[in-house]
Design goal:
globular, 16 strands, four-stranded parallel β-sheet, homodimer, 414 residues
């Protein structure tokens, strides 16, 4: 039954995607603006639905953090609508010419950006994902099938209703944004099995969700399972900058995937002030024997502390013998998300940036910048650590592909 | 056992890929040139190995066509070596800056092309694939694991030995090109299961191989299962051009994936000369009732003739009521490979090129041009009909991905 449901939704999505692919950039922008306006217009209904979800969630004993993620108020709805509006004004990648050439036989070859087609979003908790991802998909000419968590079912339904009302107002196909109504977990399995019907799956949620999607999906996935980000403090790093960036990279927000988990510190670097600054900022530092000597508050690190995403005010810290040692540690324990070197030595920086095999590599900057908005993409549908299609922060361009357009005047191949 | 073998090879490949990723373009080109020279130097050994394969194949009753694909001679070895040399001189995409920007906070963001990493090639029959794919992978900084068919085992082993000798001569890592020695089919399964160890699988062979790879692989795949290419002859097509392109698109080589399978002909177009030209050129035309009236030699088409890749001198031909009807037929029966419109009406051409959702769309040109060499890519590792990463002819750029390089001077995120 779940398979038949998803198959029918995907067929409708494909038809809608063909209409979207033919819409001009201004028409797509108008549709997204109409979605934002409809979200504002539907605010009362969305808040009522959210109250239902919150009451249900409180009864079922959801944690405070989860309740906070779920909760909406007038301000959050306005933020959601404003976020959708911001997407409307982003530059549309569809129709862009990637490259073109004229062959000796006169054939004109061009690669043109087109939408991917049908996107599946599987997400948890935050109802704003319903609006954000719908806006990004429609703006890039893609149809989307949304599958949110059961804990936010009423909120997601109300937001989805607003989004569809906006699409209809703007004359865009209402099946451009569909929501899987059933909370049956088999629907997720059916989405993951829909090879050829859904073109791309993007999970938005915790590690449990992402690992299930990555393990099961027959549809290509854009995701990151872990964000095990490293800060390597080179011997020639500026000590004040090293302390400031380390504290920011971990403590600005400890729950984001770009939060640093491990400090790798050259044996020759005067590390005590950095360690003290981390601990003074409220971070538990789990250090190796050398680090432990620097501050009595350091907790001894165990093997499991390398390669752990702490998702909280905890970090590990290790002394390294130099850049090669640091890069070997990152290659072994990293997750290919974001890794930074702090140094005043340009050649060390260049070596690190060239050799570390992560989606994002940084020099003298906080790993917390790993975010589509900060990268100038205007938004973000996720961060990908896979190696193909799109890496790092993914926004509109990552939701497009290309086709080859060949123009001739009668050429036949000899 | 197969899993352990592939895992060990993939670990070695990863290490080699890190070395390759750090090699300059001239050094990679030198390594590929050394491979070509070694192939020439090893010609006698390669021919002896090929004789063994041919004797074995003749005994096991391989078809003439298969024997021809398998057979090498001095000329074919020279062609193979020259093909490898041609790859050496291609422009290296690695290190190219895709785009860059400076953010208001001073962070410099750049996307830089890097190699994908570890490529798996699974192929059949043609021993030249061993040399061609090794050259493309090394030139683009990737390590490759080659798994050829058992019928060409001795030939592939001898060519692989030459390739490795070339790598060693040039000081490149010998594990950059590894060959799966066992002919155990479980080794293919282990490659397809090596998610995270092999980054990309490219099958090169018949439909049986490709469909197995697409159905089973946990590793991303670049491939095309079918090449069901259409020629739509619009009412305003030039009649002589229509006949010339139709005959070329089908008959130049009927076995290639870019060969046309179906002619869709506007009811208003004078189709008789095109049908006659096809039949005169030796093509069996299976037509609908309207087409059958045009020439007594037309065979009645059955339902199965739409959406069939004939791989021989046969095509189907159907009358359509106009461009919408033609595009609906292609959407239903096509394989997203290559589809062409023939017309003198620019607006009809633009509509077709924009709306038909295939990797390659053409106007007034033969579908037989669907080839990396003809597209100016210098070579081709395959043609992909999937929607992500790379579409159409895939060459060096399709074997690369990118990373984000962020350069700062102490920025922390507010």
């Amino acid at each position: 039954m779940a398979t038949a449901l998803i198959s029918e939704m995907a067929t409708n999505a494909r038809a809608a995607s063909r209409v979207l692919a033919g819409m001009t950039s201004p028409r797509k922008a108008d549709a997204v603006l109409a979605m934002a306006q409809a979200i504002r217009r539907h605010a009362t209904a969305i808040l009522a639905a959210n109250a239902t979800d919150l009451a249900q969630a409180a009864q079922s004993g959801l944690s405070e953090a989860m309740l906070d993620r779920l909760a909406l108020d007038g301000q959050r709805i306005e933020t959601m609508a404003a976020g959708v509006e911001a997407v409307a004004s982003l530059r549309d990648p569809v129709g862009m010419i990637i490259d073109e050439t004229i062959r000796p036989n006169g054939l004109h070859m061009a690669r043109i950006r087109i939408p991917v087609g049908v996107i599946g979003i599987i997400y948890e908790s935050r109802p704003n994902v319903t609006a954000d991802t719908a806006a990004l998909c429609v703006k890039s000419g893609n149809a989307v099938i949304l599958r949110g968590g059961s804990e936010a079912a009423a909120s997601n339904a109300a937001i989805h209703e607003a989004v569809v009302a906006g699409l209809v107002t703007a004359g865009a196909p209402e099946k451009a944004v569909q929501r899987v109504v059933t909370t049956d977990r088999a629907a997720v399995g059916a989405m993951l099995a829909a090879q050829g019907q859904i073109d791309l799956i993007i999970p938005r949620g915790g590690k449990g969700l992402t690992s299930r999607v990555e393990a099961e999906s027959r549809v290509p996935v854009l995701a990151h399972l872990d964000g095990i980000c490293h800060i390597y403090i080179h011997a020639s790093a500026d000590p004040d900058m090293a302390a400031a960036i380390s504290v920011n990279a971990k403590m600005r927000r400890t729950s984001v995937c770009g939060a640093a988990e491990t400090l790798l510190i050259d044996a020759d670097f005067p590390a005590a002030p950095v360690i003290a600054a981390m601990i003074d900022a409220g971070c538990e530092v789990r250090g190796d024997a050398n680090i432990a000597k620097l501050d009595p508050r350091v907790v001894p690190a165990r093997d499991a502390d390398w390669g752990t995403e702490f998702v909280g005010p905890v970090c590990s810290a290790r002394t390294v013998a130099g850049i090669e040692d640091a890069m070997a540690h990152i290659a072994h324990y990293g997750s290919g998300h974001t890794d930074a070197i702090l140094t005043q030595d340009q050649s060390a920086a260049d070596r690190f940036l060239a050799s570390v095999d992560s989606a994002i590599v940084m020099h003298n900057a906080s790993t917390q910048f790993a975010d589509g908005g900060e990268f100038g993409l205007g938004a973000e549908i996720g961060i990908a650590t896979g190696r193909l299609h799109a890496r790092g922060p993914v926004a509109l361009e990552g939701l497009t592909t290309y086709k080859w357009i060949v123009r001739g005047n009668g050429q036949i191949r000899p």
